[in-house]
Amino acid sequence: MPRHIASKRERSEPAEMYLETIYRLSENEKVVRTSALAKSLGVSLGAVTNTLANLESQGLVHRRAYRGVELTSKGKTVALRVLRKHRLAEQLLTKVLGMKWSEVHEIACRLEHAMTSDLTDAMEKLLRNPKTCPHGNPIPDETGRINRQNSQPLSNFKPSDRAVLVKITEEKSDMLRYLASLGLMPGAVVEVQEKAPFEGPMIVKVMGATYALGHNIASVVEARRV
């Protein structure tokens, strides 16, 4: 069997998926609600409860009664390792294989579980040490360190604010295709023209065109003021 394909899984694919998803969700809230985890993974609450009990027995998560779940130090280490593989795989698929940025997330979700550390390091070297994935999200280094970006959801900005887009936190294909059609990609400059109260839509100008964005869209696009 080739050296870069693991003959034995240190952790199961579902376990890695849970840990990675908990980490992603915890970037907004420290303690992740089980309902949010179930929605993100597309599974039942019962399945989440059973899997979390197993992960807790391995010392990977802490369950908080009536609150949710958070990663232990050990669980965070595993999550960041998987996240590193995922985001490097996305860069390989776009930069080397020429795939569209809207198509690579789901494929990378499958590849990340078959990648060893040696393969991951070789991929990083081939790609010349990228700092982010194609969607602008930071790639953890080989020690698990991750650079926090100075950005916030576009939904937080006010009329007359100008900002440069930094990253897209929702990486589902339909969302990415829609954002790309509007020119809302990392590096684009956006001007907020109007914003309705109570999480209503906001009007933004991108590359000379004006669009109305719902709160659900604006909240997954992060930017920094310019």
Average of pLDDT: 92
Q: Proportion of β residues?
A: 15-25%
One letter per element, helices H and strands E, the order comes to HHHEEHHHEEHEEEHE
The helix/strand class is: alpha+beta
Outline of the structure:
The chain is of the alpha+beta class and 226 residues long.
Overview of the molecule:
With 226 residues, the protein is of the alpha+beta class. The chain has two domains: 1-148, Arc Repressor Mutant, subunit A; 152-225, Ferrous iron transport protein A (FeoA) (SH3 type barrels, Roll), CATH 2.30.30.90. The protein is 40% helix and 17% strand. The protein contains eight helices and eight strands. It has helices spanning 13-26, 34-41, 45-57, 73-96, 104-111, 117-126, 173-182, 215-218; strands at residues 61-64, 68-71, 152-153, 162-168, 189-195, 202-206, 209-213, 221-225. The strands form two sheets. A six-stranded antiparallel beta sheet has the order 3-8-4-5-6-7. The protein has a two-stranded antiparallel sheet with strand order 1-2. Strand 6 and strand 7 form a beta hairpin. Helix 4 crosses helix 5. The longest helix has 24 residues, at 73-96. It is globular, with a radius of gyration of 19 Å. Mean pLDDT is 92; it is low at 1-9.
